Amino acid sequence: MEKSIVDILEKTTKKYPKKLAFVDSNRQVSYEEFLDISKKLGTFINNKYKQTNKSIIIFIDKTVNCLEAMIGSIYSGNFYTIIDVKTPKERANSIVENLDSKVIITDNKNLGKLQKLELNIENVFIYEDMIKTEIDQVRVGYYKFKKNRYRYNVYTLYIRVNWNSKRCSIKS
Length: 172
Known about the structure:
single chain; alpha/beta; Rossmann fold; 4-stranded parallel β-sheet; two-stranded antiparallel sheet; 7 helices; globular
């Protein structure tokens, strides 16, 4: 029985490795390519960050790259929260502060926007650098052994309460 989206993706990849999985205006990837990049991202996070069950912020346009970063975060044994690239500075800072995030994944296209937000983040990982990593199957398999695994966070915005964020963590 599948327990998470990663389990479902792995099962589908075994069955249809070359089948088109995701498409955006710039890229299209098969299931095999998608999981390969996601595992590279997960390995990179594990090699550089060495923490689990922590928030990984994703600051990438809503593209295939963003989906890969989401699954890569799960492979690293962490959970993800997406900050839209159009998010106001105050809201982005509120999310980072609330989560006490230490890692953010962005791409070269959005690095300038991220820098303008002046977030207090220790580790900024660049997607284009991360995909050059060799996959470590042991590290990316680690997520399966964690109990109470959080996968992603959903933030709701209360406009009348001065940009305060409310967190809702989703477990699988």
